[in-house]
UniProtKB/TrEMBL annotation, chain A:
The gene is pstA. The lineage of its organism: Bacteria, Bacillati, Actinomycetota, Actinomycetes, Micrococcales. This is Phosphate transport system permease protein PstA. Coiled coil: none annotated. It comes from Occultella glacieicola. Keywords: Cell membrane, Membrane, Phosphate transport, Transmembrane, Transmembrane helix, Transport. Its main location: membrane. It is found in: Cell membrane. Pfam families: BPD_transp_1. Part of the binding-protein-dependent transport system for phosphate; probably responsible for the translocation of the substrate across the membrane.
Automatic annotation (TrEMBL), chain B:
Pfam families: BPD_transp_1. The chain crosses the membrane at residues 39-59, 79-112, 124-144, 186-205, 254-275, 295-321. It is a multi-pass membrane protein. This is Phosphate transport system permease protein. InterPro entries: MetI-like, MetI-like_sf, Phosphate_PstC, Phosphate_Transport_Permease. The keyword Transmembrane helix applies.
From TrEMBL, chain C:
This is Phosphate ABC transporter ATP-binding protein. Residues 5-248 form the ABC transporter domain. The keyword ATP-binding applies. PROSITE patterns: ABC_TRANSPORTER_1, ABC_TRANSPORTER_2. One of its GO terms (molecular function) is ATP binding. Keywords: ATP-binding, Nucleotide-binding, Translocase, Transport.
Amino acid sequence: MSVTTPPVPVRTTRRLPRWAPIPVLVASLLLAAGIQFLGDGPTIAGVFFIGAILFGIIMTVTSRVVEGERYAKDRLATTLVTFAFLLALIPLVSLLWIVIRDGVKRFSWEFLTTDMTGIYGQMVEGGAFHAIIGTVYVTGIASIIAIPLGIFTAIYLVEYGRGPLSRGITVLVDVMTGIPSIVAGLFAFTLFLVIVGPAYKSALIGGIALAVLMTPVVVRSVEEMLRLVPNELREASYALGVPKWLTIVKVVLRTAIAGITTGVMIAIARVIGETAPLLLTVGIATAVNWDAFDGRIATLPVFVYRQYAQGGASADRAWAAALTLIIIVMLLNLVARLVSRYFSPKGAR
Amino acid sequence: MAVTDSPPSEPEAPPKVRAGRAPGRLGNRVFQGISTASGIFILVILAAVAIFLLVRAWPAVTAAPSAFEDVGFMLGRDLWSWVWPLLFGTAISSVIALVVAVPLSIGIGLFISHYAPRRLAQGLGYLIDLLAAIPSVIFGLWGIQWLQPLVSPLFTWLSTNPATAWLEENVGPTIFSGYQAPARNILTAGLVLAIMVLPIITATVREVFLQTPRLHEEASLALGATRWEMIRQAVLPFGRSGVISATMLGLGRALGETMAVLMVLSPGYLINFFLLQPGQHQSIAANIASHFPEASGIGVDALIASGLILFVMTFGVNLVARWIIARRAEFSGAN
Amino acid sequence: MSKRIDVNDLNVYYGDFLAVEGVNMVIEARSVTALIGPSGCGKSTFLRTLNRMHEVIPKAYVTGKAVMDGQDLYGPGVDPVEVRRQVGMVFQRPNPFPTMSIADNVLAGVRLNNRRISRSDATDLVERSLTGANLWNEVKDRLDRPGSSLSGGQQQRLCIARAIAVEPQVLLMDEPCSALDPISTLAIEDLIAELKNNYTIVIVTHNMQQAARVSDRTGFFNIAGTGKPGHLIEMDDTTTMFSTPSVKATEDYISGRFG
């Protein structure tokens, strides 16, 4: 910075035109392709990777020359921040792309409705019906435990909780959201090992493992939704002579129901793809097990893992099952967003 | 009562406030009881996780080193010399994940909070959140199928470029030495972990950046700052503790993530920094998942003991992260 | 149906903090009593003790007596929920339940309490309450629309209809017009004048013209300084209060030389 001389009219800085980044980007990509031709020939990944670096360098240097150091830094920051975001989209897009590409090979109505009974070697038949049923069972058990427990805990924290107990629960629920899924699996395993004995395997164990993971997620999202309900509505209800518990049930929960539904669905989506705890607790089976309380049971994530590990024709089934799983998860997320968008009370926020 | 000429529309005489009649008092009691019990039950679960793991881990902790000789996957080591390399593998994969994910997350957080057009920002946030919804087993598939071939040329270059070669010649092996395709090494595993913790860190960082007081930002812009200078002066200092706690949350997740490491990494039980060589490292979580089905007797106890160590580690990391968040909320006045 | 309330030496505490001290007051049946005073003087706090709404705040409690037609509101075993059914309340900001229709908002006091009501009784009650709140003609064609679709003034009258639908003895109003425009305010003031025929009304207001317009008696609350308890300085017929108040502080406040 130079020492300022006596009042100067507003200095006009030389700026690059608004469209300047576009030709630079095109030039960078072409240059990147050119560089790769000198080596082993261009690849898409290589062009974009090297092109992005070239763009950053060229843009910054040009800006440094034309606009000065401060603007050059600003441009560099803008470039880096934008690339960070685009970079993060690459895994999302590529993942969805390969799951769809490799998944559709075997994905069909038949795949969804047959199990793996009598399938061996390189047979291409068979499907994930048993795994879908198992996933429904295990997730259902987890939901039956975690949803009421989570909602009531959230009600306690928002409507009743005060003092050290409430603070303690808040902190530990937060910490519980960070429990590794494999530890939840070990817990459910040891719980039944100690209480029932080593031979027992069933969907129930997996359900309890998932419930441990799901409950804190439900608590957090429901708590957030209940806190959004304006206090004025509670007061209006009390002033009508409505007891507190009816106020909670009929006013607070009723007002927050869309948000709670959204939170619960996202929590289900979060645990439905859990693999590690189920690997430890419910194992794998080849046929549908209709009994939730006895016997090994197949689940979609474990099915994906096991089929992929076998390779060959099984790997195609793994991709098809992965596609099934992604469709379920994305649908849950989508419906959850739609519920919160269209069913939230308009005047409540 | 002063009311003798009640309007005729009143069907009954006004009721008195009676002592002893308590509408909903039983309902209140029951409801409050259930709610409080649920809250306490969560504490019980958490305590049960610790206690049951401790009970089953205890035989392994107190056993003589010779007791593990028959456990195949422990390679004849005693509990501690078996756990150390696993701890090391867990730590190094998590550190790699954070080194990659934290700067990226800060960039994404800034992009969503301060660069993207306001109307798009929320939708772009959802896109990143979608990453968090993808099951870990599918990240594993993706890591093997898509990421490994993609990074292989890069790793080859890292391993064979003149600088690495010169260092190997004159100093000794470097962290990039000895790459062998396919890329089933700790760096690839760390990269997959980075993608998985990215949405967790981004979510927190983004919120914190959005909370920057407008007055600070405008004060900076009014002094003639460029956007980047404003961010350095107002947004980043304000968000620093948020970034730290988000990093801790990401660390907690990375430490315990199982499937990505299990599927991508070719395991080994050594302590070294050869990031590109397969068969060198393994994480606690992936190790449990791969050996649990075949384990029996004291082997199960040893695996549970390693799980307990993982639990304590993640518990501590998360507790510190929450503590930082809570302390910040108290002192910043942002909430 | 309306009752008088006698308040004797009432103190309101928030934990250790004494918020309002030593209030003695007679609230006549079928009259409008206005409570005025500077912000933070405890007039809203006092109002809330008349139907025990202050108990919503943890650690808030009351000493002294508030007696409604011989029934001590704070007597042993008296349930606050039962008190609130007798003493209704209208709040500063209109707060219709956003998930309910206009008709359901009126019926909220009945429905939320799980009381059964026949369809024709319900229709009657809705019409009677909305008519009583001067809102019937404006909303009779859209009773099933959400309550939040109304304008602010209409919402506030809906809240009044909701309050009188449970047929209380007393109606408390906590600055009911402070969030409304002048025309809506006028509508509410007209309504108060009509409601006075059937209810005992206590209204807290910051607007002295309003107090002068609608009330029969006026009480002036003041506070000596921050952290000190609020006191009822003076209470008299509204005309007297606004023409010849006996306390200097009242005169200063009313003539605008204060606060």
